[in-house]
Every structure is written in structure tokens, then in C-alpha cells.
Amino acid sequence: MRRGSVWRVPRPRPLLPGPLRVAGAVPLAACVAVVLAAFAAGRGNPGRLDAALDPRIQAWLGRFPALLDWLPRLGGLKEVALMTAALGLACVATRRWSGAVLVLVAVPAAIGLTEYVLKPYVGTIINQAFPSGHSTSSFALAATFAILIADPLYRRVPGPLRLLLVLLAQLVAASVAAAMIAIGAHTFTDAVGGAAVGTGVVLACALTLDLAVRRAGGPPGTRPVREAGGAPAEPVTRPPDAASRQA
User: Fold this and answer.
1) Is the pLDDT of residue 65 over 60?
2) Per-residue DSSP letter, 117
3) CB distance 195 to 139 below 8 Å
4) What would the pLDDT profile of 103-137 be if each residue is shown by its tens digit?
5) In a domain, 53, yes or no
6) What is the sign of the dihedral through the CA atoms of 141, 147, 149 and 150?
7) Which of the chain's termini has less CB crowding within 10 Å, N or C?
8) How many domains, the chain?
9) CA 66 to CA 142: how far, in whole Å?
10) Are 134 and 180 spatial neighbours (Cβ–Cβ below 8 Å)?
């Protein structure tokens, strides 16, 4: 290395843009409240809300037997594992390391919380499979996808198209949850509780990772610079647009 040359160590970018990080605690708290409300409304086996809504969902979706055969498979363990791996590999390919950690930690954590904690210790209280595992995994994937696409490294995808993709992912997740109600595997409150658990766990993981990134160093785009044979120099901060293009 020639004298005077420098090396730079890239810092991981936050998962959520600044305004979303500040407001992130609100939807997280809402998810906790929804889980508690769904648990309370589901009491009664079935509860009043389930008794009112489940037959309507079953009657409406019962007209589409092909969908009822296909949609629940999207929330199966094998399919969720494949989609999780695909999202993780996409993050690794684009060197978005914090995104890869989010995918590989948040989705399994949401599923584990539902299957090994909430169902056996909370669902048994109301004698239901609360919350729905299919709903949990589907909404965990949808929430993860929404976070990853909210502030991508390469902004070649226009904002309106990104919003459309997020809404489409949420629609697919909601369809999987509705299909589980239609086939009688879960109640409405099971599905709503699963959606809140999946979304809430992903939000909690994203906020925790961003907090770790902020504590680890300066803002994204800041690179510590060291001269050959010398002491570290002052950090070099690139403008946000330049940092996004080079990331």
C-alpha cells in the first residue's frame, strides 16, 4: 500500500429510515394491544366475534375451493423456510447484512414464540389454537419484506411501486389467514392474534438491530479512515445520495 493511502470500513445501514424508527414504537405497541384484545375476544370457544365473523368468511371463501387448497400451503413450514431463505440470500447478495440478520432471526423467532410459548401456554386457556401459526409466519414475512423494501440500498424501484409491492405482500398474508378460517383450522381471533404477533416480533427485532447499529458507530455513510502507518483520521461522511449509490 502506498504512503498516504486509506482504507475504509463500511458501517451497516439502519433498517428503518429515521422517521419510521421514531414512530416504530407505536405500531409495536398496537400489535401488543391487538394480541391482548384478540385473546380476550376469543374467550368463549368460540367468542362472540368469532361466532359472528367465521361463518361469513367460510361462506364467502367456500366459493373458491382451489384457493382454499392453495393458500394454506403458503403458510406451511417448508414454504415459509424457502421464502425466508430467499429473502436472506437477497440481503447477502446486496451486502445488506442487518437485513439478513433480520430475516434469519425475526421470522423464526415469531414462529417459535407462537408455536412453543403462546399456543401451549396462552391458547390452552381459551381452549383454542391461539394464535394461528400460518398467520404468524405469513405476516412476519410480509412485515420483513416491507422493512427491507422501505429503504433499499438501490433506489431503482420507484416509491409507488414499492408501496404496491408492500400492499400485495400484506394482501397475500391476509389471504392465508382468511383461508385458515375458511377451512375451519382457526378462528378469526386466532388469525388476528397471529398477524399481530408476526408483525410485532419483526418490528421489535428491526428496532433492536437499528439501536445496535446506532450504538456501534456513526450514521450510515460514515467511514472511519486510517492512513498507512498513521493514526486514524477523522471520519469521512458522504452525502446520503452518494452513499446510497455506492452501497
Assistant:
1) yes
2) I
3) yes
4) 999 999 999 999 999 999 888 887 888 999 999 99
5) yes
6) positive
7) N
8) 1
9) 23
10) yes
Domain that holds residue 202: 11-213
User: pLDDT tens for residues 16-40?
Assistant: 776 666 666 788 888 889 888 888 8
Question: Does the residue 239 lie in any domain?
Answer: no
Indicate whether 3 belongs to any domain.
no
The set of cell numbers assigned to 140 is: 412476519
Q: What is the DSSP letter of 76?
A: S
Least trusted range by pLDDT, from 42-46, 57-61, 174-178: 42-46
Whole-angstrom distance, CA of residue 196 vs CA of residue 133: 11
**Which amino acid is it at 107?**
V
Strand partners, 226: 7, 232
CA gap 221, 134 in Å, rounded: 38
223 belongs to a structural domain: no
Does residue 11 surpass a pLDDT of 50? yes
Q: Tell me the residue type at 44.
A: G
For 103, the grid coordinates are 430475516
pLDDT digits (tens, 9 = 90+) for 198-226: 999 999 999 888 888 777 765 444 444 44
